[in-house]
Amino acid sequence: MTPLITVDDVKNYEETKHKFLEEFYQVDQEQNALKFDTHVDLPINLKRLTTSTVQYPDKDDTSDLFPGMSDRYHGNALAGFLTFAHTPMESHCFDSNSLESVEYDIAIVGAPYDTGVSYRPGARYGPDGIRSATRRLGATYSPFRPGFNVFNNWAKIVDCGNAPMTPIDNRIALDQLYRAERASLKHMTTEKNPGKHPRIMTLGGDHTITFSAIRAAYEKYGKVSVIHFDSHLDTVDPYHMNKNVTDYAALNHGTFLYWAHRKGYLTDTNMHVGLRGWYEEPDDPKRDTTQSKFSKILARDIDSIGITGIIEKIKQRVGESYVYITFDIDVLDPAHAMATGTVEPGGFSTREALQILDGLQGLNVVGADICEVSPPFDVSEVTTQTAGEVVRSLLALMVLKPVV
Asked: Which residues form a coiled coil (predicted)?
């Protein structure tokens, strides 16, 4: 059986390549251009290279050498610093001495934390994993909202980097995130922003980080209605679940909403979306409703009421209140997002979730997060790219509706 590529094929290719580089490649120093000798009979696959002269910009022209140009015609998605979708990097978000000099409207904050999980870790790598997967995103225009551009709009969006969160002590780490976001919310906004305070998009991190983010948002906006995209309740009473649990360990990724409501950060009009995780006890749904004031949309409800029905139920529930949206990536089916700590089959598709998020346009979104993204369990950046798209939709909700 003859091999598909022979030794002679490889030899001829190498000879042609070297001959092309040495004999046909010419540099015109005066014109600052590459030229090819068109009198040489080139192989058919190289002839197209001889049909034009490559023109370069002036040697001192640096107009195309800046980050954010992810367009294939103007730049390289791998250029610049690693920020979310090439947004400008701001290193003074957490600096209390820069509150008057640094202004922005929306801050992206990473929360590298995963020591509150009950199963698979790895979400501490979520913030940078999501950023890396958004290298191809940039100031482009939506095919679903004609003329709308998330990043080239009225709002100044910056990436503040990751908040320092110690992996040694959970409570200290969560307090670090709270203080980082608290400081970030004290900065000035731009003149185009009718609101008094910036808003924060947090990149988690396991779901415990939402407690700190809601706490910081509450101090600026008062009580918030939480829209909780998740396959699990996360309103578990830690002392009912385990009577031997210590107070120190009682705050984790399955109890943070229980504590957020107990602390008075939440309204009584909250909503779970996408639930399908099986309950530990039959009374868990009742306690969720009576103690933490959450209504529920199950994952399978999409088959009966559809995407439009889900959007309508969410909007009716939260009304005109200030809204915080938290999006656990495990609300998606593991076929669409396998890199997470506690996967549950039977969830939304990526398209369905994005349709629901986009349908929430008009709500008073004061903050949001994406969490439980665990890059070590990912395949070909499927989950992190999906997370990046979710974040873009959440940012769009903030841009489309300024909060006064």
From this structure: none
Q: Is residue 2 part of a domain?
A: no
Average pLDDT over residues 63-88: 71
The answer to whether residues 148 and 19 belong to one domain is no
Residue 66 placed within a domain: no
Residue 362 CB neighbour total at 10 angstroms: 11
CA 328 to chain centre: 11
What pLDDT does residue 37 have?
Answer: 56
**Burial bucket for residue 347 (CB in 10 Å: 0-12, 13-18, 19+):** buried
One domain, residues 43 and 138: no
Q: Give me the half-sphere count of Cα atoms (radius 13 Å) on the Cβ side of residue 343.
A: 14
Tens of pLDDT, residues 214-241: 999 999 999 999 999 999 999 988 888 7
Does residue 189 register a pLDDT over 50? yes
Query: pTM score, two decimals?
Result: 0.85
Claim to verify: residue 30 and residue 88 sit in the same structural domain: no
Q: What is the mean pLDDT of residues 155-174?
A: 96
Total domain count for the chain? 2
Count of other CB atoms within 10 angstroms of residue 47: 13
Are 21 and 146 found together in one domain?
A: no
Domain holding 313, by residue range, is 84-400
Q: Coil, helix or strand for 125?
A: helix
